[in-house]
Amino acid sequence: MELTITNLSKTYPNGVHALKNISLTIPTGMFGLLGPNGAGKSTLMRTIATLQEPDSGSIMLGAIDVLQQKDEVRRVLGYLPQEFGVYPKVSAEDMLEHFALLKGITNTKERNESVKSLLAQTNLYHVRKKHIGGFSGGMKQRFGIAQALLGNPKLIIVDEPTAGLDPAERIRFHNLLSEIGENIIVILSTHIVEDVSDLCSNMAIIYKGEVQLTGEPLKVLEDYKGKIWKKIVEKSEVEAHQKMYPVISTRLFAGRTLLHVYSDVEPDSSFENVASTLEDVYFATMKARETVPQLTESL
Amino acid sequence: MFYEFFRFELKYHFSRISTYVYFAIFFALGFIAINAAGGAFESVSVGGSGGKVFANAPYPTFQLISVFSYFGVMIIAAIMGTAVYRDYEHNTHALFYTAPISKAGYLGGRFAGSMLIVLLIFTGLALGLFLGSFMPWLDRSKFGSYNLLAYIQPYLVTVIPNTFFIGAVFFALATLSRNVLATYVAAIVLLLGYLAAGNLISDIENEMIAALVDPFGNSAVDLETRYWTVADKNTLLVPFTGKILLNRALWTAFGILVFGAVFKRFSFSQFASEKKNKRLRETEIVEAPIQTLVLPKVSQHFSFKNSLLQMFRAAIGEFKAIVKDMYFIAIVVAGVMFLFISASQLDSLYGTSVYPVTYSILELTSGSFALFLIIIITFYAGQLIWKEREIRISQIYDALPTASWMPFLSKFLALVMVQAVLLFAVMLCSMLIQAFNGYFNFEIGHYIQELFGFQLLNLVLLCALTMFVQVMVNNKYTGHFIMVLYYLLMIFLPQLGVEHNMWRFGADTGYTYSDMNGYGHFVAPYLWFNFYWAAFAVLLAIVSHLFWIRSTETSWKARTIGFKRRLSRGVQTTSFATLAVFAGMGGYIFYNTNVLNDYKSSSALEKEQVKFERKYKKFENAPQPRLKSVNVNVDIFPKELNLAIRGKYVLKNQTGTPIDSLFVNLPSEAKVKSIKFSTPSSLVLSDKNLGFFIYKLSVPLQPNDSIEMNFDLGYKPDGFKNSGINTSVVENGTFFNSDRMPSLGYTSDFEISDDDIRKKHGLKAKERMAPVNDEHARRNTYISHFADWIDFEATVSTSPDQIALAPGYLQKEWTENGRRYFHYKMDSPILNFYSFLSARYEVRRDKWNDVAIEVYYHKGHEYNINRMIHAVKKSLDYYTKNFSPYQHKQVRILEFPRYASFAQSFPNTIPYSESIGFIAKVDPKDEDDIDYPFYVTAHEIAHQWWAHQVIGGNVQGATLLAESMSQYSALMVMEKEYGREKIEKFLKYELQSYLGGRGSERKKEVPLALVENQQYIHYNKGSLILYALRDYIGEEKLNGALAQYINAVKFQQPPYTNSTEFLTYIRSATPDSMQYLVTDMFEKITLFDNKVTAATFKKLPDGKYAVDLTIETQKLYADSLGRETDAAINDWIDIGIFGEGKKKELYLSKHKIDSKAENIRIVVAEKPVKAGIDPYHKLIDRKPDDNVKAVSQ
């Protein structure tokens, strides 16, 4: 099964052009949707999750027309929204049990087993009787995954799940996601490059409502191999360098500024070649979008 | 610092659109109200104006501004409650609290700034009232001169103190609890105080508590202004003294206290810190996983049955969440408290309560709880609809594979379940109250039928509407506000001319339960209307489902897409089917109310009255024959609610001219089968609509000749009406009177009496009654315009299980064709005023000398039968001894259902409502209890003399002779039985009712001798005056005069007696020195302001005590609107001195008082405790409390 998105566009009433003619094909396995805040990731996620209507375009999940056959999609959908609250005084077990029933698991025995097993696998079994309101951020997100996994989901959408988690929590969460089987489509939207590099077999970078790049992270990195250069300069020199070289990122390093430049050849001898990371790809892609005349805009 | 915050707060609110919207709403309220009062809309009366009270007079202005400002409590909560809380809600507190600001400046500035904003919003009311009153379309005659202070002073008395202290409470609660819901609970507690005060006020003993406990100050104002006359209302400003001052001081002090507390408790560091939370933390080391997650294999089912299961489970979950909510519990506790407070005032009359029979307790409990149910529905409908979105879990829910109708339906069901549980609580509380009152006849079936049948059905409709509104407007607070507007609209719709129940959501024909007749024939129309609205509610639910938001987009465009998607074939079919049911039921209802019955709106009825007067008044003085005898056959069919009347009138021409045209009046619902005269006649005018018919006799009726009139009328009801369900012929407890019979000639009784309405229709203002000495009007009694004394005979038939009754003596009783017949015949002439009753009666019989006493009552209502019989005997004793012989050989008391709550005296027949007296609970040990079954019985028996022997002409003062004299007679019987103290307590209520009645007068107050059928005068003032008169001239002398008068005028022929003649007898029994008293009491409106300003005593050497009193006396004469003028005092007034022990009289004597202030010294034998002027309140004094004072050494 594949999720095929074709020419999807959406403009909000306030004029924000959130999706611009997006087309994507998402195979089974973990798919990373990488982009900065406001790139249109959540709009896309919500549209796939049946919560929003696009202006035009289509989404197909195998044979299911996602935009028309919402009920059918919801039966195979697991959705963890970007931000969600919980009833402060309901235990994890009760809440999950409630969701299980709403997912159509009407057999009580199956439901109980399913809930127990999911709580165990998300490492929440020992706190199953505790109120979710008292969970830490990481536990809450794992609970969110548990509810998304209820039933027999074929499509799981996880929207910005690691924002706000501390490093250990994030690793735990990554571990959990990585355990989800390969034969399910899992879409992970994030603005954190590590999320994608750690977990995803496929990815797309989305920026300003457009898909800038798609592919397998390893192959993509291959394309950038030997093309990323670095140089440490004084703050006062940054502006001049930005004018001269295709600088894709700047960051402070020990009080000075570390520049990364994307170039097929060595810009000059003061630069040093570095191993490219997904982050470089990410920044390079966005930078390209910034400087290249917006050809796609008129399409 | 203070100024900075103050200015910031103002700026903040001035930049918000809501501030202007609130102001506009209040401006509009004021504007609309003054236009309503000024006659811009049809027959709407607001705020105590109307009649002779000007629309812009100080009193109605005060009432309107005050009452509308109570609605503003919501705004106080929204603006002042959140003044500091806002920082926490928006997470700006950390910025503020780390800055170097002072607590006083911060709290004070925010509080003062937000309070000023609220007050500015409230000024909209006064501006609206003031500017609205200048609209060109208003009737200027309804406006008096303007007094600017009248617009300012309500703010000083009500609005500013209330805003301050309510605002302080909300401000404190929200600031300290950091939970805005706490203000809701506080608002409900305030409401509780307001309601409780309104409830407590009905008992004289509780007035002071009521005045203080009302946080809005309304009860205190009511108490201080309750005796205001028209003139007072037009000129006086509500005083800032007495109970009002106390109340305002109390609650303002409370507000200061609360603000002080918040100032003390508040600290920046505490408030800035996050709420304490112990989050679970994980600390173990994390390692990469080595296995794949194995998802448990489950089966998922998505059938309709499964959706239903989910729906019920979700509903139960929602339901549990609500009932566990502490705010829900708080509202319910408040409701239950109010319920018990109201229960302490259980349906009392003169401070004496009734047995808590199920219907009365249910009316009380569900009535007092209704407001809380409405609050809960309004509030929790919003909570339910917004629950997932507020907690930010809606996206998960919305993406679940549930049916899209599931959430709405489960939430709706949860709300209905909450109602059911609350009604169950009402049932338990009701039974508890019954048990506390020692009443253990729990009628569970009745409870269930009332609460879970009738009431729940109506609440379900309300739940559906409220949920619908919440879904559609998609803003919780707007939804609440729309519901408040809805409730207001429902109150005013009938006044705006929308009266038909088919146009007012949830409206129905209503019902009254009676122990005698159960719910009777009210049930069917009630259910028709409610099922009609239920079908409409289903449509609302379908629309709610279609527009339900299951998306992160909430624009109407997005919702329309959802609408189209959900409008499936199934939904379309269901909608059309429901629409068909709705239309079908509507059709059936319309057929009943408008086709089978004549539907008339009140303005249509008004127009008919106008038409009747315009068309037929010209016949008013046309000579007509007089009714001499009546012989009727009345067939009552209780099951069918059917009535057939065949009768014969004998009419005699007592005029000097031949009569050729007979004017026959009939009730419009009568179906005429035939009307025939013994002389051939032709029907020359038949106006069925107005019930007016003219028959022309072929041979004119010569003077002193008689003619027979035979009529055959049917009163079978067709279907049901929109309102006014007929309660005269019912399954058990039929009661109707001679109104159902034809009458002759034009009667002015049907004319519109209200001058405002007359003016609207272009009719001239009209006097209520003819002048006391109008010789022409005195040709008729005030009971009948075409009969004097008649011979009466009736045969009444009913179903075999019932007893049917009519005035007269039973001649024969038999059964024929499965029906029971009773033949009654009266042995002496009676007034043309008789009644028919039929019910399954129990009978208790007794005797007084030769007079048979019979009480016909409903089984189970035995409580007070013996009291009634006792009262009959005592009354007959007193009246025969002091007045004249009893004209009949029998007294019968007949219970009838509580569709009306009066007792009425017909010849030897007294129908007596089940609600007054039959279930009274008189505690003989409680010295405060007044035995009103005894009293009412004595009053009705007295009518056998004062109405059925002495009957006044149809002129002013007629009801003095009937009602005031019956009051006096009954008081005397009661005094002999229960002593003077009970009478004093009774007269306290009479004084209150009289003085209060003056304030509600719409036309003019008149002296007692000129009373124009005004209850507050002929009952309440009558009692006071005649009891005092008895005291001044003595019982024997007064009764002697009354006996002479009765003997002179009883059973007289026209012209009938009047109060002028009556007073000549009174005057002849009154010594010269007291003649002024008769004038003051009967011919003038006299008021006193008596008080003791100083009272001291000295022990004398001989062991006696000298008491020195300083008394002040003021006598006032009032005109018809209550304008007072000082009168010279030269009056005999009681001076009394009381010793230890309960009202031990040491001295009581009348002193001639001839100046406004006097010092009096009296020597008494024992140590005095209290002393005063007019201590027994024989004179009418608006401040009776200051008449007596404790005596100090």
Task: Write up this protein.
The complex is a heterodimer of chains A (299) and B (1193). Chain A is an alpha/beta fold. Chain A is built from ten helices and 14 strands. A six-stranded mixed β-sheet of chain A has the order 6-7-8-3-9-10, with helices on both faces. Chain A has a four-stranded antiparallel β-sheet with strand order 2-1-4-5. In chain A, strands 12-13-11-14 form a four-stranded antiparallel β-sheet. Chain A starts with a strand and ends in an 8-residue tail after the last helix. Mean pLDDT of chain A is 89; it is low at 292-299. Chain B is globular. Chain B is an alpha+beta fold and 1193 residues long. Chain B has 35 helices and 29 strands. In chain B, strands 1, 2, 4, 7, 10, 12, 13 and 14 form an eight-stranded mixed β-sheet that branches. The mean pLDDT of chain B is 90. In chain B, helix 5 (82-89) packs parallel to helix 8, helix 17 (358-391) runs antiparallel to helix 21 and helix 20 (444-473) packs parallel to helix 22. The longest helix of chain B is centred in the first third of the chain and has 34 residues, at 358-391. Chains A and B meet through helix 2, strand 6, helix 3, helix 4 and helix 5 of A and helix 15, helix 18 and helix 23 of B.
